[in-house]
User: What shape does this take?
Amino acid sequence: MRIAVLGGDGYCGWATSLYLSNKGHSVAIIDNFSRRQWDHEVGAETLTPIRPLSDRLRTWHQLTGKRIELFIGDVMDYDFLSSTLKEFEPDAVVHFAEQRAAPYSMIDRKHAVFTQVNNVVGTLNVLFALREFAPDCHLIKLGTMGEYGTPNIDIEEGYITIAHNGRKDVLPYPKQPGSFYHLSKVHDSHNIMFTCKIWGLRATDLNQGVVYGTMTDEVGLDEALINRFDYDEVFGTVLNRFCVQAAIGIPLTVYGKGGQTRGFLDIRDTVRCIEIACLNPAGKGEFRVFNQFTEQFSVLELASMVQMAGKKLGLQVELNHIPDPRVEAEEHYYNAKHSKLIELGLVPHLLSDSLLDSLMNIALKYRDRVDLSMMMPKVNWRQARNERNVQPGRIDLEPVTPRAAKRNGSRRSVTTAKPEVEYSKG
Amino acid sequence: MRIAVLGGDGYCGWATSLYLSNKGHSVAIIDNFSRRQWDHEVGAETLTPIRPLSDRLRTWHQLTGKRIELFIGDVMDYDFLSSTLKEFEPDAVVHFAEQRAAPYSMIDRKHAVFTQVNNVVGTLNVLFALREFAPDCHLIKLGTMGEYGTPNIDIEEGYITIAHNGRKDVLPYPKQPGSFYHLSKVHDSHNIMFTCKIWGLRATDLNQGVVYGTMTDEVGLDEALINRFDYDEVFGTVLNRFCVQAAIGIPLTVYGKGGQTRGFLDIRDTVRCIEIACLNPAGKGEFRVFNQFTEQFSVLELASMVQMAGKKLGLQVELNHIPDPRVEAEEHYYNAKHSKLIELGLVPHLLSDSLLDSLMNIALKYRDRVDLSMMMPKVNWRQARNERNVQPGRIDLEPVTPRAAKRNGSRRSVTTAKPEVEYSKG
Assistant: This one.
């Protein structure tokens, strides 16, 4: 198949592009390097030393003989996007090209507006370009499990049958997103559903959980292909942060009580899910929703798993509960369905099997690249303006091996910063 | 109370501003005349000869001794909006300042993007300005009944209790909006609900039906205060169009089968609902939704009421079913709750009582201002681009009184255009 990956230089996009290329598909990456730019803006860097995209693509070609086409530009630029799709003639468009960090969207008004405009207009552009130039192409859009929030009933896959006052209908599942970013994905979902209805577009919305892991078969071929590993407070995920904190011997920062429960999946399952969606396209006019995760964990369960994994590596890992910078239920019911991708052939990888190899050992390997100043939350949901302009300098760590860490006892004597903002309520 | 009316120069905004001013509230209008600009763009004009806002406000002051403050600017301009709210210090903000026409949003990509960005960012700006400078101020936001679409179950007011797999929760009512404009309102609703949760804002979302009528006690005081009466295919509503068509003796254009059913209300009820919301503010952190309409009618029922009203005036009115330019169910179940405003004291005006005075007689009075070229739909939901750039010249009508119309027989011999676009499917 001919598959265009919008945002193919990002974390999921890069792993997906390589996987699909390896499977024999003709892949084009469309990217404008926004994700790298946002790193500069927030003063963060991926733990893993990722290479420029041109290097990555050259290495991929040298190793495999396969070429991935590259179109450099912004999906916000309709002329660029539509001419690219006309030229490449994709059978499927995989749309990762959005600002994807909740904390980034919550920094202040400008970041909220940027996130919603960037994501909503980018997706509108994709929809119009498909309607005008590739009406039969299958759109595979990355949504998020965060669109649903944490309702007190089971979460279904996109739709729910509601019986009410003696009548019944299948309706879009109600959404209760928890950040301006998550809201942008809800807006997208409504826009896409509508264009499937009026224009007969075919779309699959993948409401993805939190993705973990750096390793896929393709990424592992060469250091030059290494993928991102974000652990900073803005773009990092809780599991990555915990692994890095364990690796450098500081307590894991649990936001609030830690009962927040979410869906998670290994990046090897992300890439497989995308392929499954490509190979099983939505029907004409169909807006299909899959919940794309494999296991659900609370933050405290994750912390405990990292503690146990750390123990195997000789690390003693402690927990530190800090005020939750987000406005979210810290304990709640959570049961989300996720059977549709399984029915189509997904065989999940489990976190318990991946934690050491794909997370803890990566964190340990690159631990001398850790920037301690990036660990504590500075973006508080309760404030309309969070100052992140002044970047503290990097706090250097001496290189320490796991064995050395063990020798040094329970934890390193680095001074861990307290949260730099007060969580004033109101 | 101190009440800021965003979009106070528009149809609902103007009637609301006068009503609230007359009731003794301190009113400020915030407007940038976008609505008048869009008339120029689409080549349409309100049937009624509205006056510049400066004239309107001067007349109001001369007649009543009351002053309405005016702040000229765009809610998209955060510095303007926030400094205005700081200066005026409102107790309530009534937010009408959005692009409000479904067909306008469906013209092409640029109009879709404009509508969603304008409405979503404008509302985000309002939310941030309230959070930063007026956190206790009550936001009264105009939503639309069109957010709900036409589900096969009863429509509740904003929320629905769902029992599912042995558990129960009260969740946001699922939304199935039918245009990029209606989608923008759904996006707004989600954004507002979220900010009520994280910042404790107080908001009332008024999901308004289709408003009809030009006359309120205040507007009727002087010709210089006259309100808009939009009948064109982009900004006009079906009832206004029918009345104008009846007045000039051409068949009523029914889109498709005419079974499309919607909620309607008299503009005298709109202004009263706004006052009721102001006087009964939402609680801190509460996102409250009222369905603001009084009666529901199908398009065919409206057509039949206009036929009967026409008969009383000596007009013979015929119907013409044309292909529906919209993608919508032409026959469907529709039962929408609307009791909350009634419980707070709304006493509805009924269409049967208003049709002659507030609609048919206005249409007849100004019938020589009718532009026939504005009547047939040129914006087709099924197309991604609708050409509206070339404006035909106005087709002049001789002035004809109802009596003359009767003399001339069943209908005037004007050549009524066929739809100027083919409704190709796909």
Notes: Residues 48 and 229 of chain B are 6 Å apart (CA to CA). The first helix of chain B runs from residue 11 to 22. Chain B touches chain A through 54 residues (CB under 8 Å). DSSP finds 13 helices and 14 strands in chain B.
